[in-house]
Model the fold of this input.
Amino acid sequence: SSPDFLLIARTDARAVEGLTAAIERARLYREAGADVLFIEAPQSEAEIRAVAAAFPNVPRLFNYAEGGKTPAVAHSLLAELGFAIIIFPISTILAATKAMRTVLKKIKDDGSPIAVLPDLPRFGDFVDFIGLPEILELEQRYKVVDMEGKQ
Done:
């Protein structure tokens, strides 16, 4: 155990061996020192509740992956059940895909994206969003210089 390190133990056993086996495997992970338990793909709300009930007072991770085997459930339910971490691995990718389709269709239909430009972020907003100024600052701070002062 370290204050500088967090061990999240994941099991995908639910898909192959069933929920009982996945819970048992997670229990063994906890006994071995895992800080957070992650049972992938419970297949019903009842299974989500069973995972929570099996590990009261143990930090658990929930994978909110749209289109997967786990049903969509309210954030309030996950909070009520005590899931400490909720990840959304594809939500933004799906949203971006929809936006890309909209823009590409407009370009195909109209020959340009002019009609959708008011709905798009400015390029500077995009650059700030991806953290480019911070990356450039780090690059300057940590750039490698050879003995002759050349990069």
In short: The mean pLDDT is 95. The chain has two domains: 8-87, 91-142. The first helix runs from residue 13 to 17.
